[in-house]
Structure prediction request, 317 residues.
Amino acid sequence: MKKIPKVVVVGSTNTDMVIKSSRIPTSGETIVGGDFFLAAGGKGANQAVAAARLGAVVQFVSKIGSDALGDQAVSAYEKEGIDIDLIVRDQSNPTGVALIMVDQEGENAISVASGANHAFYESELERASPAIREADVLVLQLELPLPVVSLAAKIASRANVPVILDPAPAPQGSLPESLLGDITCIKPNSSEAESLTGIQIFDQSSAERAARILLEMGPSCAIITMGSMGALVMDKTNTIMCSPMKIRSIDSTGAGDAFTGAFAFGWALGLTIEGAALLGCQAGAYAATKEGAQPSLPTLSDLKRFTLAAGAEWILT
Ligand code: RIB
Prediction:
């Protein structure tokens, strides 16, 4: 097993502005009485921090405004030990912001003003090519422009670097075949899997049908996370279910990112896909028990303690 997994994440940076209240208001409705907090977020950043906290060497490729929120994000990455050399500062667009509402059950609704994330150009990715080619694993999501995501996947797949795509937020319509052909493992949640395959997922067998369609699209592995139902992991030879951990969800924001970051860490470390997915499930469950996106991500010792306390299997020594 490798000693120091090297993970490159190409993805978004956001500042999350969160209100936690009894329920999420409907359109046109005002609800008073919630609690507010600011937290570091962005799907790319959350996944980079998740992998770094567990012990990966992480290089994060992101575009951030030249503003106070951007300065805060960069100094937070430095404190996490994340390599920030490939972060681009945008002179004209602000740092991404996400407005997040969380209800009593920990469910959320998110609206993102992408800012600098959506002004990331393919030409700005060239500088990251050597790092991508040398990574053990490349991690991508869909909060950056699709041409940038596709180019990053192409650079990695040409260098035989495994590519994980977390197709979130759910794409409007199908993803380009050329991108899917460069993805090694695709990791949607149930609703993202539904928008990619047209299959509504409500149990293991519907998840299996959707995963089979995802594999036909190009990736050699598909993982569908199903919240309290656990996760289905399918590759060309095996299908397994990761059983859910019994937790009380406080805030599910960032739980999917915790899964992806931990999965990337485990896979880069040399675990099997099933082993890395188990670690991902445990990290996702941990994150749902805490508030915020990045504040809820575990270190390796946090995760080990949490997993053993829940009576679940800990696969790392
Ligand atoms: O996946 C959670 C993330 O989605 C939040 O941190 C928010 O910034 C949005 O990007």
Summary: Residues 12, 14, 16, 41-43, 46, 98, 110, 112, 143, 253-254, 256-257, 293 surround alpha-D-ribofuranose (CB under 6 Å). The mean pLDDT is 96. Residues 230 and 244 are 4 Å apart (CA to CA).
